[in-house]
Design brief:
The protein is of the alpha/beta class. It is built from 7 helices and 6 strands. The chain has a 4-stranded parallel beta sheet with strand order 1-2-3-6.
């Protein structure tokens, strides 16, 4: 982590920011230790690009976790979870509270939301992307209106 902090500090001096994108293993590899929490508490320049799907997969309570780390969260990966398989699915088609996540993004004044989908059950990737875009756009319009 020292190397990442050194790089992040240098990027900051050049007017750029370093964001760390999580997966579920940051919460499960060391029992009882939240590696992202450790990173935030032991660095000043590393920001978080939170993948909400993986945070939910790790069985953390997402909204309180985001509240506790709000000063370092700068981006969200918006990915939904199919209920029975727990695989990623189109935004707004799964079981994750996407609207609540967008409300948090609004409160944190995040500059954008990143859509990601890794698995495709019913649609080809480009068709799934269009569905994600339309559904997220509708949620964003509702939250921001």
């Amino acid at each position: 982590m020292d190397d990442m902090e050194r790089i992040a500090k240098r990027l900051d001096q050049e007017g750029m920011e370093l964001y760390y994108h999580n997966h579920a293993h940051e919460f499960t590899e060391i029992p009882g230790q939240d590696i992202l929490d450790y990173m935030v508490n032991n660095s000043k320049h590393i920001n978080l690009e939170v993948d909400l799907y993986w945070l939910a997969c790790s069985e953390h309570d997402v909204l309180p976790w985001l509240e506790a780390h709000k000063d370092r969260v700068g981006l969200f990966h918006m990915k939904d979870m199919h209920g029975s398989s727990r695989k990623s699915t189109e935004v707004g088609s799964g079981i994750l509270p996407i609207k609540e996540y967008v409300q948090v993004a609004k409160q944190l004044a995040l500059p954008w939301l990143i859509v990601e989908q890794e698995e495709f059950q019913l649609y080809q990737p480009l068709e799934a992307t269009a569905i994600c875009y339309r559904q997220l756009e509708a949620i964003v319009e509702e939250v921001y209106s």
